[in-house]
Amino acid sequence: HAKESGKARYALFDVEMHNAAMKRLKIENDLRHALERNEIKVFYQPIIDLPTGRLVAFEALARWIHADLGFIPPDEFIPITEETGMIHSIGQFILHHSLGTLKFWQTQYPQAKDISISVNFSSKQIEHHDLLSEIEMALNENQLPAKALKVEITEGLLIENAELAQQLLKSLAEQDIQVLLDDFGTGYSSLSYLHKFTLHTIKIDRSFIYQMDHSEEHHTIVKTIAYMCKHLKKGVIAEGVESEKHTKMLKELGIQHAQGYFYSRPVSGEDAKELIVKYNS
Ligand code: C2E
Ligand code: MG
Ligand code: MG
Ligand code: MG
């Protein structure tokens, strides 16, 4: 009896594994056509200057709207594009598309004049490409200054490829392109990164902000990161700001910039215009 049900479980497990593998295969195959089918979209989430309440930047976030599977979040498809190398074409598309959109806003709205765009770059993207010249080309193509673009990286790059990262970050700094360290506080978060690498701004991971108002410990962590960044002369952005209470606490800690659902979820380029008008008029 036990043997039989064991067999049944095994068979079920097998079916599940098979289905998961098939789905993954479908996703991987369909990803190859996602760009040409116009299924990859860029959404934009505002970054707000806390003292003035003005919208100072947008983070560009990739979206995949699959023809029959619907919305597939970036955490699901970006890792696959990294494994297959497709991250290069998709990353290039996101870079060009978001800079083009920024240029469009700037020509349409005086309120968008000083806005910049933050673009995420994965380690894979940086390791296999001449990213610097690609970035310069994209800026030139859209007649945008270096300050229009912020490069978001994660600690992974600094750990996996310290030498290359150091070179790239140095040359980005020489071109006046600011580099933001994303998801700070998760992963390894060695403090030595903060002075070893040319990082302009730290983005405090949303897991700390999220619990700040009901956990004294999380509040202390945010406070300490803010203090450290202030004395190291680095900018700070709080991610995942979801409530008025969060913004109040962040202001009290002297944190300059905030991003999160409290201000807006990531929106389409079309809807972002309303946010520019709302925050900067
Ligand atoms: P990330 O760069 O840390 O982006 C912030 C993520 O937090 C976004 O998720 C955003 O929608 C979400 N978020 C923002 N505010 C809030 C909030 O108040 N509450 C909560 N719960 N979440 C909030 P998203 O868009 O799903 O992106 C997930 C991750 O996928 C990004 O994390 C980034 O690592 C990666 N990613 C997205 N777009 C790209 C891209 O174009 N290139 C690369 N290489 N990675 C990307
Ligand atoms: Mg990011
Ligand atoms: Mg982040
Ligand atoms: Mg992330």
Automatic annotation (TrEMBL):
Positions of transmembrane segments: none
Cleaved signal peptide residues: none
Originating organism: Pleionea litopenaei
Domain EAL as annotated: residue spans: 24-280
Name by which UniProt lists this protein: EAL domain-containing protein
